[in-house]
Amino acid sequence: MFKSDRQKYNKERIFTINATGRAANEVFPTNFIKTSKYNIVTFLPLSLLGQFRRYANIYFLFIAIIQSFPIISPLNPISAIAPLVFVLGLSMIREAMEDISRHKSDNEVNAMECTKIVNNKQVKTTWADVKVGDIMYISENEMFPADIIVLSSQFESGVCYIETSSLDGEKNLKPKSAIKETQTVFECKETQSQIQMNFNSNQQFKAQGNPPTPALGDFEGSIHFPNGSKKVLNGKQLLLRGAFLRNTKFIVGVIVYTGEDTKIMRNAEPSRIKQSTIENTMNKLILGILGIQIIACALSAILSSWWLHKSFSKHIYIIITEQNYTLLSAIAFFSFFLLYNTMIPISLVVSMEFVKVFQCYFINTDQDMYASKRGKYAKAQTSTINEELGQVEYVFSDKTGTLTCNQMEFKYCIIGDILYGKNEKNMAIPNHNNVQQDTTQFKHSVFNFQDSTLTGIIEDNAAYQNQSELPRKLIIQSNDKNATLEIKTQKQLVHEYLMLLSSAHECIAQKDKNQQINYQGPSPDEITLVDAAMNLGYRFEGQSANEQEFTIKGKQKKVELLQQFEFDSNRKRMSVIIKDNGIYKLYIKGADSIIKARLRPDQPYLGFIQNKLSEFSSIGLRTLLMAMKILSEQEYLAFERQKDALASSEKREQEKEELANNLEKDLYLLGATAVEDKLQDDVPETIADLLKANIKVWMLTGDKLETAENIAKSCRLIQHDFTIMKYSETDLNKLRVQLSENKLTYQACIKDGKKKSILVEGESLVTLTGNQQLKREFTKMAMGCDSVVCCRVTPKQKAEVVHLVKDLNKITVAIGDGANDVNMIQEAHIGIGLYGNEGMRAVQSSDYALGEFRFLWKLLLIHGNWSYIRISEMILYFFYKNMIFTVPQFLYSFYSAYSAQTYFDDWYITFYNLFFTSLPLIARATLDRSVYYKINVRNEEYTEIYQKSTQYLKGKFPLLYSVGQKQTIFTLSNFIFWWGQGFIHGVLVYFITYACFDTELVTVNGQNAGFATLSITAYTAIIFIVDFKIAIYTKFWTFINVITLLFLSIGIYIAYFFISNYFKGTYSEFTPAYLIQSPNFYLIIALLNVVVFIFDLVINTIIHEFYSTETDKIIKWRREFKQLARKGNVLQKIEMMQQGKRENGQRDWGDSFYEQILEERLKSDRDLNVIDEQQDILDSKVQQYVSSPQNLNYSEQTNRQFHQRVELQQIQHPLQNNNAQVTNYQMSQKQQQNFKNVNEDSRINHPQQQRIYVR
User: Fold this and answer.
1) Active-site hit among 398, 525, 689, 847
2) Residue 520: CA count within 13 A, CB half-sphere
3) Which residues are involved in binding ATP (predicted)?
4) Binding-site residue set for Mg(2+)
5) Which of 711, 760, 1060, 1226 has its Cα between 20 and 30 A from that of 73?
6) Is 398 a catalytic residue?
7) pTM for this structure?
């Protein structure tokens, strides 16, 4: 097809409805899907092109090319080509496997069967063969093969239901409906053998649609009938490719978008490739190393030229002329460039990829991050930024569904000026900290609402009739005053209120086999309100395109549904227009600030409701206002005419929204609702630990300021000692004053060392960020606060706030669970989506997915911290081991007349990075742990102490997070330190080897050491030094570490060492056979390892002595505690501390743990003393009362009570020493004897009661 034609049709999007099967609409893309990148012909060139987008691969390709010129290269070209081919081959194999999987998926999808209608007959075809304009027949539970306009359905109303979970993750069914004109024209009846369609296939129908866009709900179009009439189409008629038809036997529709134009393909854009801070820093360092390498090569080339110029007259075999002198210098430069190329490790990038893949595996399989409520593990959807998780400075969190459960409970409702729900407990701040939830099933809403007064009014209970009369009747009039509704009683007001709840929504009623209704809707709030109306007697049964059905107190009721204006984050309201008994009613619900601005003046209930809303907000409840108005028939018909007039307008959706906006004014307030959304498990503790880790937490929510503030306090985002600064003004001048006052407060907090927090409303934020001066001052204050709460913010504002902080080079995390969080998730350095009740859009757009907010603790503080440390140390070690290997090459040039001769054999160079030294480093970078908070020592006697020690260490772990935040490991100074170590160790290897073998005999036949002997000895020493150093620095040993170090590194090298003895024409020919007979060979290797070990030991001792970190302290304490636990000496240490003795005479870092145990023990002792005193009192009372016949059994009861108290005391305080346990036992025995004596006396004094006692 021609590009100009495509552009034309993309703009106009006009096509013929193809009922005859003849070729039509060929200008549009086919429905053939191709997500694969390559085919057999293009794989090699395109894959290679992709590989060489990496600068490192280009560098090593350049090395391989110049090494192929014999005049330049002192090395075999294979030694450069083989490693490059190996590294590229691994990456290309991975690419090929992924693309083969994509090919299989494409073939399966394209070959799927579907049914189209040609000349009123069903014809089977494949997804790949359908075209724009084809009429499709879709059966129940079938997936739509393309984007389709529904023309008719099983139901006369034209309604059908679809599930879009594969598109947006939402499992709630969505209603779609054909317009009544197409439902009539394309009516279809199903018979046993075929379908019968009331349609003349010779008629010409045309359809029009807007250009394809990624927005799932965005569609504007029209259908043109043969008689010239035109009807408007919108998103309600669009069925998307990949969605399923549910609860509807069949639909008939016409294809409007195919292939790459479908919504699902438009959204299948490649995700933004993120690069971590460490990788950016590493790339800069590689450029720096390249510069150093060029300088070293230039220096060596200059020295080579100098030597040639100085010595060529003494050596007749050296022929130099003016013409070749410059050429020889250039050749020398590139020859040295080849020798020194090992400064940059060729296997670093591919090794990092392997390590990051394993890190993702550990995140994905971590049992501690398994959400049993949802049956979901954590999921790493990218591996490129794992180490960034350990460097986070700011966390931006949504509230609903992220910090809270998004499981709503209907708590209170206000109808008129009466609050219902007060039969429950008095309003108080809910206990969010210890929420116990059902782990077997997750429900959207909970209904525990009780109010006998409201129930009595609804059920016409005679006892409440006297409460039904309103003090002042509410008269609702249309704007033109041609329609009036009088509400005289509270019962009428309750009826309108509950009708609003049960009709103004977008829920679908699904019935099970027992006719029990399960509501599905776009949000838990929506479902909660409809569910509440049902439980109060107003049951929504379902709706068609133009009708709603209810069961009200057992009676069926139907109303005509005329209009429905959906909720979105900008409107913050939802409304419907229904015709009920001839009256046109507009019901509306929404945020209080939005509805309040649309009310008529002098609303009788507004003052009372506002006061109650403030109380609800103060306890963290979510509130909505309910209002209504009535329309006269003339008003509604005028609205219909205006709406129909927009059919041909290009901006009809915007203009339709403006029409709705004008209609939703002059409202009458009916009441309000308050629902509770409990905090998720461990949210307060998680946030407290994040703050302790110096991670600033910002909460971004659409709730109003008071609600947001109280939720922030409940989850410890704002703590009791925080100073709060608020921004709620929208006027620029007032906001300047507020900013000045808060600035003084901020400075005072800094001076006094107080913690501080900011609360800012969305509209205030717009004004603040719109003025550059105010923006700078506000940003400076916000960045210095411990927490920030932004309320009443839109999804766009959430992303802008993240961008504001991100621009200051702070590493950010955004976490949310809904579609309104996608913008900020994509904006942040790291996006985290939560599996929630509002679909999978957040998860699909994220880098990492979690089941609950509390798992953020382990993702950042454990996996993030470990990943940062592992990757940082791995990179440093890679450059260290390559530096120690390169230095002998550099030094050898001084002993070889600067002739650019290699010190090591070609194949030894090739295998150094690929096989001999990489695997142990990869294993360490994958498995090593700097420190862990869990302590597992099998000693049942101290089980509780182990549990407490784990909690103690877990509380200390946030302090370790600064390692990544401050980037204390992968820094320029650390890089120079490690590189310097490599240089010094390389110097030691070269000169010690040279000195020891200079004149020594190495063979039994009297031969002395040759060049090959020095080379292989030095190489062997480097292998052992590198591996030995890895062993020293490994803190957490596993079986894999041992295997890779001993067998896959040292073992493979030793095997190659012996095999290379038989490589003819190489340095190693016969040399290993000589070396294994030389004691010097073993002594040099041992000596070099000892020297390097002593060198490292001195440096590390100095570092640990003068620069001890929190990690070092925890490691030391863990080691000591485990030793005490194994020997059973933990209680002895506690007893020593109780006596005021300390092992070293001074307080140690971990003494607070033992002091905590000691305090619990002392408290337990005090409790025992209290029990002893109380028991003496009980004994005296027993003696007084047992003489009475009615109290004969009192002593037995007291005995039982005492035993219960002792058992309870032992459960609560198990850490008692043996003396305390003996005391308990003796007390018990003593009391039992007393009770026995008392009972004996009782039987003597009251023989008539003896039978009762025995019973």
Assistant:
1) 398
2) 14
3) 398-400, 526, 567, 589, 622, 701-703, 792, 798, 820-821
4) 398, 400, 817, 821
5) 1060
6) yes
7) 0.76
